[in-house]
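Listing S7. Sequence submitted for prediction.
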Amino acid sequence: MTAVQTDPVVSTPYGAVRGRYEHGVAVFRGIPYAAPPFGPNRFRPPLPPEPWDGVRDAGAFGPTAPKPPYSESFAQYLSDPDVPGDGCLNLNVWTPEPGPGARLPVLVWLHGGALTRGSSGVPVYDGRPFARDGVVLVSVNYRLGVEGYGLFPDAPANAGLRDQLAALQWVHASIEAFGGDPDRVTLFGQSAGAISIGALLAAPQAQGLVRRAILQSGPPEAAERDKVRRMVRRMANRLKIPATAAAFADVDRELLLSTQAEVGRLSSPVVGGPAFGIVVDGDIVPRDPLEALTQGDAASGVDLMTGWTRDEYRLWLVPGGLLERIDRLGAVALAAAMARCRVGAEVPRGYRGLHPEAGTGEIVGQMVTDHLLRRPLHRLADAHPGSSYVYEFAWPSTLPDLGSCHALELGFVFDTGETPESRKLAGEGAPRELADEMHRAWVRFAEDGDPGWQAWDDSHPVRVFGDGPTRTAYGPRDAELALWDAAVPPVRHEGSTPASALPDGSPTRSTELRSVVRRLRLPGAVRRH
């Protein structure tokens, strides 16, 4: 019997695909779920792929979305393969039982990367361990950066989010043939992927496509339209073209990427700035996703799991020595963070009281993490008690200064800690038993919506992984988050931050805050991964 005859073949609505058996699991890579988004389709909503005759080979990862590479300081920790080609709207499927009838739970993965980087081909995201444990794993590529999230007067917004919706619709129509149950789809993602999930849960067009969702280190949110417009306008100014989709579509792809990287260099979660993001568009995002999920009936009947890492900020600040720079800047850096978070001095003063041994960099990092992640994720869980589960990942990397940083949990969730790409962030010696526990919790949640610990209620149960034996802690972040609830927003003055808002009582002009941004030189790559 030949290898071709033993390879798994599955029919999709657009044609048959031939995968591979690898270690007892059927793998299909690079399946198109939409047409290539270039030529006449550039900056437009996704269209169905052109049907094909015969059997299409699905043995290799498909093209990745155009994206600039990580800077050297981040590339030492993060892998981001690049596969050339136009057909970047593709997905991959790992399944233990190809063919209809198995009705297995399905996990659909949306990668992170600040909506400007990342792909489904990162080896840490290998789906074999999930398929080994009886779950069909689907991972998705979608448009990034200005191609996916540019805001133009002559094109619909949120093209990358529309790609993700098209992939979900493909899963609903096709996954049964791969052994999956279209009524048991769990959408999960990290950072920008989790932010995307928040928007999709609130999108009218996605209702009924998702049974469960896991948001890892990313809250439901909408970016300010003006911030996205400023990114586009700055790119247009550098390129000397109008800020329209038609004009951008005529620009060489590599030139567009290099311009995007340069314009986005100073954006970061710590000091903000212009950046690409999902925006309210009156269509797929009719209102702010967090408001929709906490004040309306969006995601009604959807089981939720959310969480964060203990030291998210360390991936944002450690590369390139940025954490040490913040410590040296002291009160000036703290003032920039206060302006970013729109709070007065009582909040950082409270953090000092709770963590008297912490340096300025840690205070700033945890403040921004709570502002961006933990507070909105608490609100989301509060709005869905009884069907929400919350976790904290606390195992520290064995690499210097990274701690329990952003994205570190991924090798444990996917059970791919043995890969060199996972060790780039975790170092050597990641505990096998912790990976077993976390991976199993994600499998259990996909199976029946219960990861194995107490659902969210007024006692605020949080499952803590990696800080000694796995346990449930009650309200471990409540003291810090209570500082925000009691804070009075400071009065803003044009061009300055008032003296009462600063730790040392001295006024700081907006020009000095901009100087902090320049001195920190926080690259756009760190916005969200």
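Caption to Listing S7: primary sequence and predicted structure tokens for the chain studied. Residues 6 and 21 are 8 Å apart (CA to CA). The longest helix spans residues 360-383.
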